[in-house]
Design goal:
With 236 residues, the chain is α/β, with parallel strands linked by helices. The chain is built from nine helices and eight strands. It catalyses: guanosine(46) in tRNA + S-adenosyl-L-methionine = N(7)-methylguanosine(46) in tRNA + S-adenosyl-L-homocysteine.
């Protein structure tokens, strides 16, 4: 049986980081957004950081959605724009992506979106309290397509157990990938988590709130598949 609330020691032994460090060129516009907007929209995270107070952060009570690994932020900004009654927290470690999303926040005047530039596992452990989230989005995480690298994939049992513990009863976890092998692994891992239940027979239809990215459109034209998985936290 998978632990529903793994201890910090157990997670440390099976640690999967939510990112891989890589270089990235920052444009002048992204750097300007970082310089001018980060103090307002990027939240700090350190060993001393307290658990996130969503009401204080956003100035209101509203559904709280976490996105892990937003890349350059286009889909994140699109979702936040079309769902103004929800609060969104995006986690991304790469500086160009953070700058790009800050630029979109400014362009769309988004008040319902905040960013943390840190490893998602540590953010969730330190800042997200149990049963506090209404939804979690993980769209197109690194597939680590070589078999010997599958152990580096984000969607693995200990991490999914941690995510499930942060969802409210009835809240959802939505993953999407364009790698069939990873989709199959996701389905196996999510289905094995006792706190979660599948909202579909296996893979779900793409929910209307998730936009189709340019990369995804190109892949679909080439005949590549995309798999969405939407699981729900069981009632206690």
């Amino acid at each position: 049986m998978i632990e529903s609330n793994p201890t910090p020691e157990a997670l440390a032994q099976r640690r999967v980081r939510s990112f891989v460090t890589r270089a990235g060129r920052i444009s002048n516009a992204q750097q300007y957004a970082l310089d001018t907007l980060a103090p307002r929209f990027v939240l700090p995270c350190s060993a001393a950081t307290a658990a996130l107070d969503w009401q204080a952060t956003f100035g209101r009570n509203a559904p709280c959605i976490l996105e892990i690994g937003f890349g350059m932020g286009a889909a994140t900004a699109d979702i936040a724009t079309h769902l103004p009654d929800s609060n969104f927290l995006g986690i991304e470690v790469h500086q160009p992506g953070v700058g790009a999303l800050l630029k979109l926040i400014d362009e769309h005047q988004l008040e319902n979106l905040r960013i943390i530039q840190h490893d998602a596992v540590e953010v969730i452990e330190r800042m997200i309290t149990p049963a506090s989230l209404d939804g979690i989005h993980i769209f197109f995480p690194d597939p680590w397509h070589k078999k010997r690298h599958h152990k580096r994939r984000l969607i693995q049992a200990p991490f999914v157990s941690l995510l499930a513990s942060r969802l409210k009863a009835g809240a959802y976890l939505h993953c999407a990938t364009d790698w069939q092998n990873y989709a199959e692994q996701m389905l196996d891992v999510l289905s094995a988590q006792p706190l979660l239940e599948n909202t579909a027979r296996d893979y779900a239809a793409r929910p209307a709130y998730r936009p189709v990215t340019k990369f995804e459109k190109r892949g679909l034209r080439l005949g590549h598949g995309v798999w969405d998985l939407v699981f729900q936290r069981r009632a206690d």
